[in-house]
Amino acid sequence: xxxxxxxxxxxxxxxxxxxxxxxxxxQIPADLHFICQSDVQITQVLEQILQYxxxxxxxxxxxxxxxxxxxxxxxxxxxxDTHLVLLSPVAxx
Length: 93
What we know:
Number of strands: 7
Number of helices: 3
CATH architecture: Roll
CATH superfamily: Beta-grasp domain
Number of domains: 1
InterPro entries: Beta-grasp_dom_sf (IPR012675), Mopterin_synth/thiamin_S_b (IPR016155), ThiS/MoaD-like (IPR003749)
CATH class: Alpha Beta
Order of helices and strands: HEEEHHEEEE
Strand order of the largest sheet: 2-1-7-4-5
Pfam families: ThiS (PF02597)
Oligomer: single chain
Protein name: MoaD/ThiS family protein
Distance between the termini: 60 Å
Helix content: 25-40%
Largest sheet: 5 strands, mixed
Organism: Acinetobacter shaoyimingii
Radius of gyration: 15 Å
């Protein structure tokens, strides 16, 4: 019985909507989303982006990640549908 519950939990999927601002915005589509296993790390989502858009590697490596108004670490696990924002670094004063 425990195995079935564990299998069901592992099989749960979530939708990750990606929104980009700054230079990275020109490297990936505006309407980008992925269906992932629950408990996926942001790092794994970024790796998926790189598989489809390898030309974005230089910018993607330097982007900050945010959920809502909070900057979040790439190691954060996502457990529910999420709107992940990619923020390119900016220069100026």
